[in-house]
Amino acid sequence: MAIIPAYHYPQQGKLVVLGAGESGVGTAVLAQKKGFDVWVSDVGRIADQYKKQLEEAQLAYEEGQHSEAQILAADLVIKSPGIPNTAPIVQQLKDRGIPVIAEIEFAAQYTDAKLICITGSNGKSTTTMLTWHILRQGGLNVGLAGNIGRSFALQVANEQYDYYVLELSSFMLDDMEHFRADIAVLLNITPDHLDRYDHKLENYVDSKFRIIRNQRPEDHFIYCLDDPITKAGLERHQPAAMTLPFSLTEKVVPGAYLDEKNELVINVPQQELFTMDINELSLQGKHNIYNNMASGLVAKVQELRNASMKESMGSFKNIPHRLEFVACIAGVNYINDSKATNVNAVWYALESLAPQIVLIMGGVDKGNDYEMLRDLVRTKVRAIVCIGKDNSRIYDSLEDDARIIVNSSSMRDAVEIASHLAQKGDTVLLSPACASFDWFKNFEDRGNQFKEAVMDL
Q1: Is the pLDDT confidence value at 195 over 80?
Q2: How confident is the model over 374-388, as pLDDT tens digits?
């Protein structure tokens, strides 16, 4: 165990956890092991699996409310990233000077492991999984956590990993003050969650750049040189770490780039030069070349052998709900991209697939700007089938470019309509561009309902 000296949070006393999901319950278990008097509060209903964990650990909890007196008596509060800093209970805590931090920052105090942290508007789950796969196949003792997999805090409590690959959302980064990433990866920045950032892109950019906060010259910052918002953000956020950019359009040394032979080249100081034909990558499409560049740079910083990297990058299977092949029925391919919850993710999906596409999209609009999809819709999309309660913005933006655009009454209805519109050789793509909570529990539920409907055709 290593308490990082820069951290000045209480190391004993009453600790309150707000939110009893994966991160909250894991935090409670770790805090109990470290000697805190732990109490868990969730304003909603706690899922049975987490309630069972809390009861087995004999941890006190409440559900369906936040008892202010109990919470405001805390010495330290760990909150779920889903609870905004503007929430009244959080404001009351801060007004009283009670520290409110995230699970990731709390758990990082109690591990000596090297922390490899990945963020971005799109591709972070795929890149996190790919990085973990490459490092694990390369023989490193590595855990997977953050916005994916099991709770980081729970793993710190019960495991002994030398490395962690952490997927970090902007909401997680917002709650970090003293946390330091040994390797920080910023894949891209596109407008997303702007409702949480006063509808100001610069606020969201500042949130993403918190990933380089507290880095030192011996650390590494990996980023996409081709992303204009990231490049603009670098003018305001100067990294202290060694920078390793990646690009499809420029030869960057040190860094990663695409050469004239369509080979991915990774050049890291004092490491053997890595090259790989992009056609040998298991993940295809322009966006996945970027993902492989980022993961490959992490692997090279960790001094992995070229042969091991090539085997891993050629064998990796993508995560569920991210351009996931479901079935080929009557010559039509069905692809589940339910994790595409913003417009840029849909652009990547359309860009990576051949025409003709029947696109299933819609849901809870987050202030989306669909303009960037117009050219791809015009050239690649046979029809759009809308899901969700209100798709007026999709109609307003894309009606002139889509040959056919229709509504549906359920996921099953959408899949049936799409199957009738599609022709042999087409692809039916679920890539919503929107949040899921009007018709579905979450994006996993949406993707699973799509897969079930496809298999029932």
Answers
A1: no
A2: 999 999 999 999 999
Give the model confidence (pLDDT) of 246-270 as tens digits.
999 999 999 999 999 999 999 999 9
pLDDT at 192: 56
Binding site listing for ATP: 120-126
Over residues 333-362, the pLDDT tens digits come to: 999 999 998 887 898 788 778 789 999 999
Check if the beta carbon of residue 282 is closer than 8 Å to that of residue 255.
no
pLDDT digit string, tens, across residues 362-376: 998 877 789 889 999
Our CA angle for 294, 300, 302, nearest 5°, is 110
CA distance 171 to 87: 13
Tokens of 59: 């941890």
Are 417 and 407 in contact by the 8 Å Cβ rule? The answer is no
Structural domains of the chain sorted by starting position, each given as residue range(s) with its CATH number in brackets: 14-101 (3.40.50.720), 106-315 (3.40.1190.10), 324-455 (3.90.190.20)
* Inter-CA distances, 133 with 1, 156, 160, 187, 319, Å: 26, 20, 18, 18, 11
Of the candidates 420, 425, 353, 348, the residue with the CA atom closest to the CA atom of residue 385: 420
Residues making up the annotated binding site are 120-126
Burial 243-261 (b: 16+ CB within 10 A, else e): bbbbbbeeebebbbbbeee
Distance from C-alpha of 421 to C-alpha of 107, rounded to nearest angstrom: 50
CA distances from 449 to 338, 380, 411, 428 (A): 10, 25, 7, 14
Query: Which residue, among 404, 351, 352, has the nearest Cα to 373 in the 3D structure?
Result: 351
